[in-house]
Amino acid sequence: MIQIYCGDGKGKTTAAVGAAVRFAGCGGRVLFSQFMKSGTSSEISILKSIQSIDVFEGYSVSKFSFMMNKSEREKAAIGFLKQLEDIKKLSCENNYGMIIADELAVCVSCGFVPEEEAIEFLKNVPAETEIIITGRNPSESLLGYADYVSEIKKIKHPFDRGVDARRGIEF
């Protein structure tokens, strides 16, 4: 089945990480890959230590998309599309029971990954594989392919008061 964790609230990646740990805990194999992040989020180190979770480190960025110039956006689009292609290939070559594409919805909504490429990925992953996609603003087409959609809504967040992201809490 396909799950999407979306919304403007904190916890989308955390929910996906929890699902990965749960699935690995029952003996399943997981492929975990992050889009739109630098690869330094704290969850990566612990996920790498779990034998049945493979962390695929694709293209990394150190800026939010709205802070990127045209050249950076073009490079990111090439890098993220290659990352998705690599995940497609890995999903066919390996026996993963779960694939997590963290922040893929954002890649689509920001124009880095064409929507049709993301949908092609969903169509071609082996039927017995659970897919989890996270990120803000998933397209209606992505939502249409999902079996589960969970929206995490922000009510209040310290960032609104000028508090920077904290290591181990937000990243």
Summarize the structure.
The chain is an alpha/beta fold and 171 residues long. The protein has helices at 12-25, 42-48, 70-93, 104-109, 115-124, 140-145, and strands spanning 2-6, 30-34, 53-56, 98-102, 130-134, 148-151.
Structure description:
By secondary structure, this protein is of the alpha/beta class. The protein contains six helices and six strands; from the N terminus they run βαβαβαβααβαβ. The chain has a six-stranded parallel sheet. Helix 2 links the parallel strand 2 and strand 3. It is globular. The two termini are 27 Å apart.
Brief descriptors of the model:
six-stranded parallel beta sheet, 6 helices, alpha/beta, about 170 residues
Overall pLDDT confidence: 93
Q: Uncertain regions: pLDDT < 50 for 5+ in a row?
A: none
Q: What's the main sheet like?
A: 6 strands, parallel
Cross-sheet strand order for the largest sheet: 3-2-4-5-1-6
Strand content: 15-25%
Please specify the SSE layout and strand pairing.
Layout lengths: L1 E5 L5 H14 L4 E5 L7 H7 L4 E4 L13 H24 L4 E5 L1 H6 L5 H10 L5 E5 L5 H6 L2 E4 L20
Helix pairs in contact: 3-5
